[in-house]
Amino acid sequence: MTQPTTVEAPVETTHQYVLNFACAQRPGLLHALTGLLAEFEGNIIELKQFDDPRSDRYFLRMHFSVSGDSPEAVEETLREHLSGLSEGLDAEWALTPHGARRRVLIMVSKSDHCLNDLLYRSRVGSLPIEIAAVVSNHPDHRELIEWHGIPYYHVPVDKQDKRAAEGRLLELVEEYDVELVILARYMQILSDELASELSGRAINIHHSFLPSFKGAKPYHQAFDRGVKTIGATAHYVNDELDEGPIISQQVMQVDHAFGPEDLAATGRDSECKALADAVKLHCESRVFVDGIRTVILR
Can you tell me the distance from the alpha carbon of 183 to that of 247, in angstroms, rounded to the nearest whole number? Predict the structure, then answer.
């Protein structure tokens, strides 16, 4: 006697996402967004929101889980519903799989402390990034980068005409499907056109707690002036040199016993920490650009 065939139902699995949502403030926004998630029988894991009275804008970051047998189908349906909700609100939103590693391209000149720090943090998994390539206007770090199995590109910059170098950079960004460009002590000023092209997806590090010490040897100048704090700022790149929206800052105390080399060493530590924090916040979808400021939902 032939036994009846048993068809097993597809096993549903849980998928986690992060939703970023920003729009003009109005009543009922949180209700609308959580209500949409309820339609999917989803579960909120973390929710942070901020209503900015100065700009009259609302910001939300929601980490949630939903069940489904196909992550592609679940995400597609979520996006359809979010698109419908956001149309009437003129909202900006982004949906990303939780824990996804972002593809980044690092730009560096001769100083390698931030580069080495990013390599280490990526390798041990403390930053959710995949380093797709490293670009430098010097050949110095090729051996180090290729030892890590990462493509290295020496792209010289003609001070009289940077268009060729910047064009090559954009080619590499497209070729490697780069989501974020990290200027890890890249000592070249980007053109307004390139800064605009990379708006919101390029982070720079700057010793911003030394604003009056410009040009060569800023830490030596700081020593001569007897500074009491050393710090650094990581910010988004824009067409205003070192004045893009701030993401992360570090401050370290120093005193009269610190020589120029000690100040420089302290500065390097603060630069590494500020840059790593900014990259982590960006890659975890915790940063919203609000004009010339940022809103960070930790």
Answer: 14
Q: Does domain 13-97 have CATH number 3.30.420.40?
A: no
Please report, for the chain, the start and end positions of each structural domain, with discontinuous segments joined by +.
Answer: 13-97, 102-296
The catalytic position among 140, 239, 242, 269 is: 242
Q: Name the helix (H) or strand (E) containing 136.
A: strand 129-136
CB-based contacts of 6, cutoff 8 Å, min separation 6: none
Distance between CA 169 and CA 232 in Å, rounded?
A: 26
In the block, which residue shows the tokens 């003009």?
24
Alpha-carbon gap, residue 128 to 242, rounded angstroms: 25
Is 255 annotated in the active site?
Answer: no
- Yes or no: domain 102-296 corresponds to CATH 3.40.50.2000: no
| pLDDT averaged per 10 residues, the chain (length 298) | 56 87 96 93 96 94 91 89 92 95 97 97 97 97 97 93 94 98 94 92 81 69 79 88 84 90 92 97 96 92
> What's the pTM?
0.90
**Buried-state track 113-139, b at ≥16 Cβ within 10 A, e below 16:** bbbebbbebbeeeebbbebbbbbbbee
